Amino acid sequence: MPIATINPATGETVQTFNPATSAEIDAAITRAHNRFADYRRTSFAQRAAWMHAAADLLEAEADEVAAMMTLEMGKTLVSAKAEALKCVKGFRYYADQAEALLADEPADAALVGASRAYARYQPLGVVLAVMPWNFPLWQAVRFASAALMAGNVGLLKHASNVPQCALYLADVLARGGFPDGCFQTLLIPSSAVEQVLRDPRVAAATLTGSEPAGQSVAAIAGDEIKHTVLELGGSDPYIVMPSADLDKAVTTAVTARVQNNGQSCIAAKRFIIHTDIYDEFVDRFVDKMAALRVGDPTDPDTDVGPLATEQGRTDVEKLVDAAVAEGAVVRCGGKRLDRPGWYYPPTVITDITRDMALFTEEVFGPVASMYRARDIEEAIDIANATTFGLGSNAWTGDAAEQQRFIDDIEAGQVFINGMTTSYPELPFGGIKRSGYGRELSAHGIREFCNLKTVWVG
């Protein structure tokens, strides 16, 4: 894939960028390595001042940044503005909380025969971030804000279709005051990631993206014995039981499926509805999905914009068409729209069987799969019948059912009577083939720290 801004609403190539050469990559790693030597000794107060300055700049430029995100990957302008402001919140959260989150943890010195004993968090060094296009600023900010406040320095290899977003993040951090070399964007293809990760000056890596990308980075890092955090795909269940508030469950289900034009790892994808309310839920859900307005993502009245890439739309089409050929029923949508750009309509599919690819594979587009469950046991069984384990949603007014879902759904996150989302204050990540490690909260900032045991006699 070329490193280029290609407008998904039209298919037009707006701007192309030259990839960094091997020598330029080496020079960037050298700058990062040299900068870490002194940056790691800066105070939390100094880092926080730079981070707050970057947050202020981003907040002031939120409209322009939103337009850039919409141009590069097609999210609606409304959701792009919300993402920009969420990044401001992420910057400020770690600026304000990092020192407390990384404070020394005292131990019982007398118990271990010491005068003092404690655990200390210290930065690892140069960290590589390989980031996806679907939340082009937020995905990178939640890494950058934590890594920089912990005293690490960062190298960003962003997705090739959002180069302007990638360059903007490095620029706004520099304008905020972070010294040269603290955070650099590398405009490189995926094939160049190995050069960076195998460099002995690079201490660790984090990746958000596809399973194959995660496997590749994990394999290289494993060979080099370097720490990694992976956030990969998701096929999140959305369970609704008879005691749920059906109005809220249906309305939220629509947003949960089509957020970001359906291109979110934590979007609800498999809707598992108790048989007593299945028909009513599906009918109401289909009506709302079919009524969504698909169109120009810069139009404030648009609900769903185009998919980010032409290949992404092709992948969605293949899964839907194969399921239909094998007996699945399309209740709305199901065919690409006849217009320029990479549009695919909100789609609802029923009568899916376990031998269909649609049952097991993640659909990265506005396609909802519907499943009928006889009882809570079958609902949990369907929810867990996937190789993924990122997020999950369950709707029920019954306290015992809520506890069952909390205990038995196999996922890194469970949201009861609400839509899965990310908060700076809560850990974010998955299990199974959705990856390992956590971002955000105290857990996220500590991922790229050495937890050093200190014993003083």
TrEMBL record:
Top-level division of the source organism's lineage: Bacteria
The keyword Secreted is annotated on this UniProt entry: no
Keyword annotations: NADP, Oxidoreductase, Tricarboxylic acid cycle
Enzyme Commission number, as recorded: 1.2.1.79
GO molecular function, one term: succinate-semialdehyde dehydrogenase (NAD+) activity
SUPFAM superfamilies: ALDH-like
GO terms of biological process kind: tricarboxylic acid cycle
PROSITE patterns listed in its UniProt record: ALDEHYDE_DEHYDR_CYS (PS00070)
Record-given protein name: NADP-dependent succinic semialdehyde dehydrogenase
